[in-house]
Design goal:
Keywords: ATP-binding, Hydrolase, Magnesium, Metal-binding, Multifunctional enzyme, Nickel, Nucleotide-binding, Nucleotidyltransferase, RNA repair, RNA-binding, Transferase, tRNA processing. Its EC number is 2.7.7.72, 3.1.3.-, 3.1.4.-. This protein has helices at about 1-5, 20-25, 75-80, 105-110, 125-135, 145-155, 165-175, 180-190, 190-195, 195-200, 215-230, 235-245, 260-275, 280-300, 305-315, 320-335, 345-360, 365-375, 380-395, and strands at about 15, 30, 40, 50, 55, 65-70, 90, 95-100, 110, 140. It is elongated and about 85 Å long. It is of the alpha/beta class. About 40% of the residues are buried. Among the domains are: about 225-355, no CATH class; about 360-400.
Length: about 400
Amino acid sequence: MRDRLLGRPSGDRDWVVVGATPEAMGAAGYLPVGRDFPVFLHPRTHEEYALARTERKTGPGYHGFVFRTGPEVTLEDDLSRRDLTINAMAQDADGTLVDPWGGQADLAARVLRHVGPAFAEDPVRILRLARFAARFADFSVAPETLALCRTMVEAGEVDALVPERVWQELARGLMEARPSRMIEVLRDCGALARLLPEVDAMFGVPQRADYHPEIDTGVHLMMVLDMAERLGTALPVRFACLAHDLGKATTPADILPRHLGHEGRSVKLLGPLAARLRVPVECRELAELVAREHGNLHASAGFGAEALVRLFDRCDAWRRPERFEQALQACECDARGRLGFENRPYPQADRLRTALAAARAVDSGAVSAEALARGLKGPAIGQALQQARIAAVAAALPEGG
């Protein structure tokens, strides 16, 4: 309903059924699929039909609820348990809009507003609010909704969230139209410090103005995330962007605003963060690579052929060229996610692609066979392959490597 009113493509239709029971749905041929509350699939269309329900909080976190369904539960009762007014609208089969909480008016005003006090009972709604802020970048968050989120954080509600749900919402928010707004909303209500303290600590940390005119490390992070969306990158790239500079928050005060060694500190901080949120391996491994090597990838314009081959070795680019390509994308986001650098080219990426293609074109089998014919063994064969790759890179680069 929301997306239709906004003129945006809408996904599958979700139906709310009033005046029915689970037994009646089953008797009509609907297939039960809901684990926590009665949801059914239509026997032919396979669209979801959920019984109208209300809920009562019985414990901390988002698992602590008891749901109630029955013929006496009205559509308005069901809509009253929704998170935001723009998500608390429905449409009858005849096209009549059911909007008891002012969702249509908030759509027109571009406001994200909670439906009622029940919002405070489910901490996942803070994450959903932040995600919707990232999706609808021109919507503001109602002051009373932000204040309620702060109260929830102070009460420890977000501390009860399970890692899988935090990652699920974080991942979806990173893929929205303006990922930085998710970080902004979580930070404004205090949830970022509870859920991602490593990221929250980056705000207020200065950087060298000649490299980072935006100065603040947290501001730079927000710009990098939005550049990742602008360039249409995949989730692993966006998570790598989120985590690439974590170590800057732990730079010793006596060397600020320089951040010597922040790459290693970023990798060290990333490990516990990824374990805590149970980040998928693909995202974690790319983030570790980018955190460790992004400084070298940026500086690679000055690398000769031998240094480039060593860089490819460290990045395992021979076996994982697709991951190396994603690392280049993350580094381009990093380079362009700076004030005044948004539209500048990133020539390092094309130079590295050319060099890697040339090195990977070397026939390792032929090189090994030739080395064996010359009487070489063991490490010497590997060295011969290394030299062949270096020669290929040198020949492929315009400046001769």
